[in-house]
Amino acid sequence: MEHRGIEPAEQAATVMTAAGMPRMPARVMMALIAAPEGGYTAAELSDRLGISAGAVSGAVRYLLTTHFILRRSVPGDRRDRYDLAADTWHTVLMSNTPVYERMADYIERIGASAADDPAITTRSSEMAAFLRFMAKRLPEIVSEWEEQRAADAQLEA
């Protein structure tokens, strides 16, 4: 099997890990960016990355749960194939927008439960305000991205 983009994929996975994504899911996700049409099977991911089937299974489970990848069945083949979900980043960001609002609510409740401690109320109100800002701005940013992508596509046509 040809292994295109191994070094940049490993470097990108290192950056994703530094940003908080678990190491194996980051490696599998970056490998899928360099996957041929139709993605990879679990065995191909294991071979490409030099990791165990169990490591692939755990990484795939994480990436499926977080909506970064898709599992595809191929007629006549018992093995599933894995591929990146379309518009991965903006889909994941948008699906997390309600989480920011819920977190802000809970964090405000933490602050309210310690109203006699100014450090706690300041910290919780600042964090809640930031999360509410993100919940408001993310849909706007994604909309701007979609407009930019459409404009770029028109220029290329």
TrEMBL record:
The keyword Heme does not apply. Residues 20-79 form the HTH marR-type domain. Pfam families: MarR_2 (PF12802). Signal peptide: none annotated. InterPro entries: HTH-GbsR_regulator, HTH_MarR-typ, WH-like_DNA-bd_sf, WH_DNA-bd_sf. Keywords: DNA-binding, Transcription, Transcription regulation. This is MarR family transcriptional regulator.
